[in-house]
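Journal club prep — side note

Before the paper discussion, L.F. wants everyone to see what a predicted structure for a comparable chain looks like in token form. Sequence:
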Amino acid sequence: MSNRKLNVFLPLLFAVVLALGMFLGHKMPGSGNNGTTVFFTKPSRGPLQEVMDLIKTKYVDTLNTDKLQQEAIEGLLSKLDPHSIYITPEELQRVTEDMDGNFEGIGVEFNITNDTVNVVSVLSGGPSETAGVQTGDKILKVNDTLVAGNSITAEKIRRLLRGPAGSIVNTQVLRQQKTITIPIKRGVIPLYSVDAAYMAAPTVGYIKISRFSATTYDEFMKAMRQLTQQGMKELIIDLRQNPGGYLDAAVRVADELLDENKLIVYTKGKDFPRADYKTKRPGLFEKGALAILTDEGSASASEILAGAIQDWDRGAIIGRRTFGKGLVQEQYDLDNGGALRLTVARYYIPSGRSIQKPYGKGHDDYNDDIMERLNHGELVNKDSIKINDTVPYKTAGGRRVYGGGGITPDFFIPFDTARFTPTLTAIYTRNTFGNFAYQYYTNHRETFKAYKDAAAFVKGFQPTGELMNEFLSFAKKDSIPGLDRLSAKDENEIRVRLKAMLARQLFRTEGFYETINQDDPMVKKALEVVLDKSSTP
């Protein structure tokens, strides 16, 4: 009986389902009528996507739509703040390597002169040293690609030499007029962010941080332990020309310098709730005299560290006003392999001040700010510093400080404009110092074996008149103007820089900074301040 009832009602059930299906189909998007959508909302493409689609399908000529989209994105971002940027797929790998603190390659530093790729230095313990590559080798071929005399660029040679760790790259090099084939097994190559750590005086440690990457804190702690073992009681941290990086890295470094439960920085934005970053653990250097070196190239995470130290009256800021970047970016990966780095919040240092300089007049005006500081006289005269924020803030000790345009130093050190005469500017621009140092080192390799470390080199090596004459002859081939009428100041600058570049050739950035800092007025002032117990900001 129940089966007969089901047979009677089954056609009726099918009819109801069919009618309902026709009704829904009639009301769905694309049905060709003006009925109200029942369950689905038609996604809106927006006018920007509509325009791109029309250009792709209707435009009279064939276009590179990828390039067009990139320009459209960059045009859109140009209406926002200067730090919201689009990173192309090609750029993303390099950016990621810089921030991760490593890349996969063979571990050599090179330069290119006269279409020749010269190995300037070989990473100690790296793949190239293991394979037998030496400083002074000239790379002729990479696998089957000729790179000598082939208008090779630095970017092209990097692409050829880098690759997955464990893979083999076959290089052909010229060494003392002999051609040698060297297979190199690629590895993970560190990109250090602590460029130097040494004792600048018997009790004063010096640490140079070039950026804040994923490995900075570990590098910093390693340097601190080494310096502490050498008797460090005072510390100088050099943040000049440090563009910033990871917020977390700067916070962790600050945590080692400030005692517990102190606010280091906080962030907040329209859709970004306030987040406080405070000290969490006992620091390695909470009590000793401290100086932070800054200049107009110190930005972002550098300013967080310097600002926290200044606001808590923990140490002295020495140098010039910092860049003034107080915006927080988050990075979002895109389907095309690129990324969008978008500003989502502002950061505020402990006194409550934002140090972001104004950007309302457009990107060009913002990017020209450093040149405007030079023209205005700020880089040579503290009284010329423009304070954009008229709201006064106070440090923990009651000193008045200002925001709205960077961290203003406690002790001002002017930029030495007299260093950059036309002759010296040409020498720097053409990398004459670096090219000469490489050539001189390779020709006098045995002489330099007497110096076991950077300290011994700083103490024992002095540029001779013969070295100066060799350099001037070399520079003349570079068509450097004014070499026959150098001032005494120019000659001294050349001697100091030559010694530093040779130290770099021998001991990399550690040697360079330990040498160049001997005559650096900012470092000299920092030594004076940290060793003078009565000196206060």
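L.F.'s comment for the group: The CA atoms of residues 91 and 338 lie 8 Å apart. Keep this in mind when we get to the figures.
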